[in-house]
From TrEMBL:
Pfam families on file: Fungal_trans (PF04082), Zn_clus (PF00172)
Domain of life: Eukaryota
Compositionally biased tracts (Polar residues): 75-85, 100-114, 155-164
Protein name: Nitrogen assimilation transcription factor nirA
GO molecular function: DNA binding; DNA-binding transcription factor activity, RNA polymerase II-specific; zinc ion binding
Every Zn(2)-C6 fungal-type domain range: 10-40
Annotated GO biological process: DNA-templated transcription
Amino acid sequence: MEQRRRVSVACTLCRQKRVKCDGAKPRCIRCISEAKSCEYRYEEEKRKPPSKKYVQALHERIRILEEQLAQHQTSYNNASLQTPVSFRPQRTAPPHEETNSGLSKTDQNTNSPINDLVDLVGGLSLGEGDQLRYFGSRSNLSLVQQPLDRKYNPPRQSSSQTDSGIEIDGLSLDTRNALLQIFWEWQNPWQYLVHKKAFMDSLNSGSNDGYCTPLLLYSILALAARYSDRVDVRSDPGDTSTAGDAYVDRAKALLHQEVEAPRVSTVIAAALIALKEMSVDKEPAGWTYIGIAVRMAYNLGLHVDPSKMVQRGFLTTQAAEIRSIAWWGCYLVEKLFTVGIGRPSIILERDVHAPLPSILSEVDFYPWNNDDTLPQTSCSSYSITTFRNTCEMFRMIARPLDDIYAHPTNSPTQKQNLVTEINLILTDFYNKIPSIMRLPSSLSKTPLPPHIYCFHLHYHALSILVHRPFIVSPPSDPFDNLLNQPAFSHLETCTQSAESITLLFRAYAGFYTLRRISISVVDPARTAAIIHLFNMTSNDRIVQEKAKSLFIETAKYIKEMSTAWAWSRRALRALILIAQRWSLDQYLPMIIEIDPPSSQLIQRDSSISTPIHDTQPQIVEGGAPSPGLETDHITGTNFNEIPPSDAGLWEIDWSDPFGLWPFTDPLDNMVGGLWPPEPPDQ
């Protein structure tokens, strides 16, 4: 008799009956025999003991709190006590909410004037195109449940809709299906924006339900084309950088029409267009389009909990799920943008009330597979579980990062307090992620679905960003480490996370290559490379050599991503400039060998002697190169204008090695962070 294997998590039914569960996916044997639904709740796992890193974070948090307590005790008569702020995602109930807020309007007499006047939340009502719109109570429009807008007649679109689905001019059915398959396998599992079943049902049936629209289809195809080597998806068959350009141009034209009366599909399309623009290194356009997506999402009330609307029959369960997926997909893309380019958050946690997407067994427990060109993985996808945990992670970190990297409104001591608190929360969260998302003991032997690697890459990148502003130069005397252990631990944490990022890329490249990795992981790679680069300035030869090896390996991974994502080439150019700034010119030939087209970065005019902070790269209008000058073909930057290296100009200030001063100028801002900041006013 075959021995029953042990599973880490039993399904809900088996746990309720206190019987053994075989852990089969999508349904265990007992649930099949009893014709019951089978659900696994991995978030309830509590068997794993605290990690060493969590214990260290806890000790550091206790140390900071003890120091604060001692300071308050000595200055009690002269200063008021200050309470540290918790950054766990939470919502403070404002006055009247428990009794008279809009959250409970459906349970009370909705015609009561007092209930209407004291409402704080607002609600949903029909707007243009018979779509739900959200109005906050401050506007008073939330008091009206009937449509107020004029009748909207959407403009006719050139793409036709037939019984066999949407037909796109110049696109064969074979190409369309191939790009959709790429999208479902490589893009949507990580940045979960589209409900696959609802979209494909609409596409195949040709129904005009407002979800599978020509705009959304064009947007999906435009981004999926970046993952493809097919020649017929390029505007110029010989130029891989033109993949998807024709599709995105059409999508932009349709978006301009639909923005007058957006739908959920319009929000999704705008977010996908933002990613497509970033893929060709059009950062301003990408940032603008994700802003448009967020604005439209708020307009449609996607951030609001739709459960009451479902109960009242205004929304179906699937429609509510589609709204939830669109909101949280848009949320994740926005957070990846704000972290990647170092800008304040657009979405504020206090405004978010929508539930996370449900775990759909036909998606989460379905085996992840690719297009048969790479080794198959036998594990389930767990894409929604990964997506939910990724969103939770960014909810924990978004506000603290905004505060840490904001202009100096808080003292360094207060910022240090924030760091220890969020480090403890983040470490505890990572220690308790579901077992199905944890890394195997041997990264090189056991493949995981690509999106799980993306989760771990971003966790380590966020860990670096939390600690990096507090890095100080490691002391030359080893005994000094014992006297300054807390300060040195920030560099140690960043170094460990940077090494983990490189190892994760090594594992991913070994199983899948980096041809179809998500564009969002370019930023973790760049973040890790900067830490490796910093460690190359160490006086310790062992640290220096190890960092050099890891840096070159990471830079190669960044280069490998450049076929699909031109954004990675900007990262390489940034690393070259930073290496020059930190007097690491001797390593530039190795980087140039990785990225030959950027070799003009080290071709400099010897007559230039202007201090670096007084000279900026010349940006040629429209990206057109100036006659006779070596110019970057993407950004139009004139690299001949970069000043020569000078030991005095590039000397590192070890009291502030990253040029952050009071944490105001993070290097991840790809423009401002590459030049020394002006000293703060005294």
